[in-house]
Amino acid sequence: MTTLDINGSAARVDAAADTPLLWVLRDELQLTGTKYGCGQGLCGACTVHLAGQPVRSCITPLAAAVGKKIVTIEGIGQGRAAQAVLESWKRLDVVQCGYCQPGQIMGAVALLEKNPKPSDADIDAAMGGNLCRCGTYVRIRAAIHAAAQALA
Ligand code: FES
Ligand code: FES
Is the CB of 125 under 6 A from ligand 2? Predict the structure, then answer.
């Protein structure tokens, strides 16, 4: 048994140390907001925060998450940056099919927590690894700028 710190609570999980964090979240803890896309660290659908940094949970072994704060899309609602992102995402109607959006939101919140006034280039650099097959990139960028304005 391993104890993880997820969304502010302790969670006991029974998985091998090399199990990808994504499967622990989805299969053991039923935190299915974090999505499986490529499974190879290439699409960003599985992004969670580990010790405040956005990571690809599909290529992060359980062992790397022990003892660190894990935040998933289910627990992202706290904090000013998260509130601003969720609000601007709704107001600008960013979501299309929605599949990539938990990962996009995790990426956007991590960006704004580090850089509350990102330029277009900053956004492209931070979000470039989060793919959206529906092509919502223009709205994502606009919503990040809107969230940044709300935080100013
Ligand atoms: S599912 Fe993890 S990066 Fe694509
Ligand atoms: S909204 Fe459909 S994949 Fe991004």
Answer: no
